[in-house]
Design brief:
eleven-stranded mixed beta sheet, 15% helix, 33% strand, globular
């Protein structure tokens, strides 16, 4: 069963007048799509309207996204002042993102920088990683570190240098490290809740209005494999 966020169970990690940061569940879509399912952005609007007794339209700006089966940190802008500043901050890679991924085996070395060229296929919504540039591809770079060896899996910590479509999923799969539950990129079975074990764990950035440095850490989903990582 997919778990989805509602205004009653929303996991708010940080909130002020200008921004709200939530811990996305695996069943949430950040913005509306062809499924017609209620997006997380609408859930957050309902939460704000309910909490602050707001009537009429609630302003909420979507700053970035996570794939539906992925969990972790999502930032929304609550004001029209904060939105363009946050957009600029993310576009200029001034928000430092750290991801955790649980994969099926040890990578070739315990710490490395991966560089591939990714090409997205819109028909199957999948990216293919190439060792060299090919037509229609974009350079993708990430750092990974082995954080913990589990009984049957390995926990990796990942820092992104670029933000490509399905980048972590495609690049790790290309080195033989399939993310648990990620059928699309070669793992052998799905997770019961349709999640994959990829979590946007930490985000460090300067508040767009207050100019304070924020460090946000998203609690892991509650399941035996994630629990073994702590």
């Amino acid at each position: 069963m997919k778990t989805i966020s509602t205004k009653k169970n929303l996991q708010v990690l940080y909130e002020d007048n200008h921004i709200i940061i939530v811990n996305k569940r695996a069943g949430d879509i950040v913005q509306g799509d062809k499924t017609g399912d209620k997006p997380l952005s609408e859930v957050v609007k309902e939460y704000i309207a309910d909490k602050y007794n707001k009537t009429g339209n609630v302003f909420l700006g979507v700053v970035h996204r996570l794939d539906r089966p992925t969990t972790g940190i999502i930032v929304f802008a609550r004001t029209s002042k904060a939105l363009p500043r946050l957009n600029k901050l993310f576009a200029e890679k001034k928000a430092k993102k750290t991801y955790w991924a649980i994969v099926n085996k040890m990578p070739p070395i315990s710490q490395d920088t991966l560089t591939h060229w990714l090409r997205k296929n819109p028909k199957n919504n999948k990216s293919t990683a190439f060792a060299k540039e090919v037509a229609g591809s974009k350079e993708a770079i990430l750092d990974y570190t082995v954080k913990k060896k589990l009984d049957r899996y390995v926990l990796l910590e990942i820092a992104l240098h670029t933000g490509r479509h399905h980048q972590i999923r495609a690049q790790l799969s290309a080195i033989g490290c399939k993310i648990k539950g990620d059928l699309k990129y070669g793992f052998d079975r799905s997770n019961k809740d349709a999640s994959i074990h990829l979590h946007a764990r930490k985000l460090v950035f300067t508040h767009p209005v207050k100019k304070e440095l924020l460090e946000i850490i998203a609690p892991l989903p509650n399941d035996p494999v994630w629990n073994a990582c702590l």
